[in-house]
Amino acid sequence: MGAVDRLKGLLPPGAAALLAACGDGVTQVRLRVGRPVQVCMGRGGEALSDEPLERAALERILAALMEYSVYARQDELDQGFFTLDDGSRVGVCGRMVGDGTRFRMDGIGSACLRVARPVAGCASGLLAHIAPSKGVLRSTLLLSPPGLGKTTMLRDIARQLSDDGLCVAMADERHELAACHMGVPTLDVGLRTDVMDGCPRDRAIARMLRSMAPQVVVADEIGGAEDALALADAARCGAAIMASAHAASLGEAQSRPNLRSVLEAGVVALVALLGPAPGMVRELWRRADGEGVTAWRRA
């Protein structure tokens, strides 16, 4: 059962009816104690329930989504989210307690369910630039603000490359790309894709380079120095890189030291800026051959 269908059975009746009336276009459901349930849809649409959500209702909903194993999810909660079996992510906010170095989620006041909805074929247009001819594969970085389909696009890139005959290694730290259950993907990520699930991206990439001989390495939402080093190492080993990161423009990505190192070290040859709607490509940039790795031109 998908995340939205599960939520319909957990919400108070009025909010559940509202969610059902919104149909298949739901992208997020936001739950806040003492305020209406907010249902977000594509292209900025939204709907609000008539009644505020009570704390007891939020606690009951979250407990059910976590299959009544809150303790087992504590490490995820401390990072501000947990992931459902279908790859949908539930972000949480509330009271954090700690000693200055380690903080733990102690009380949740609001949650945001971001619906994972695989869209087979959504990356086909972009793949014409990533793999323009047989034997040519351009390492690619997807950029966009949150909510514009980076993970969906990256998943479909991996699926299509894998089904076309390439061995793909996927570092799925937050369980969103493949939604593995006991190490086995529940979402279609391709016939020849191996997934390292729940492991920090840099460590997952290093392990798979040693053990799985990948032709393509896939990593979602990169940003740390360790990510940049791991991807550079994968590129040196001859793997093509398919990755995504949060940034509203190429210039913004270049202003962030770790992403700048990915762009300037020759790790990727193509940058796709997604938007204005999910699944769309707004800008495409290609590293200019013969002009150094820091020269980028609009494709």
The SS-based structural class is alpha/beta
What is the helix tally? Answer: 10
Taking pLDDT < 50 over at least 5 consecutive residues as the criterion, the unreliable ranges are none
Report Rg.
Answer: 20 Å
CATH architecture identity of the largest domain: 3-Layer(aba) Sandwich
Number of strands: 16
How does this structure look, described?
By secondary structure, the protein is an alpha/beta fold. It has 2 domains: 3-114, Beta-Lactamase (2-Layer Sandwich); 124-298, Rossmann fold (3-Layer(aba) Sandwich). Helices cover 29% and strands 30% of the residues. The protein contains 10 helices and 16 strands. The chain has helices at residues 3-8, 13-21, 55-65, 74-78, 124-130, 150-163, 201-211, 225-236, 250-254, 257-264; strands spanning 26-32, 36-41, 46-52, 81-83, 89-98, 103-114, 140-144, 168-172, 180-181, 184-185, 193-197, 216-219, 240-246, 270-274, 281-287, 296-298. An 8-stranded mixed beta sheet has the order 11-8-12-13-7-14-15-16, with helices on both faces. Strands 3-2-1-6-5-4 form a 6-stranded antiparallel beta sheet. Strands 9-10 form a two-stranded antiparallel sheet. A hairpin with a 2-residue loop joins strand 9 and strand 10. Helix 8 packs parallel to helix 10 (257-264). It is globular and about 60 Å long.
Keywords:
single chain; 2 domains; eight-stranded mixed β-sheet; six-stranded antiparallel β-sheet; globular
Give me a quick take on this structure.
With about 300 residues, the protein is of the alpha/beta class. It contains 10 helices and 16 strands.
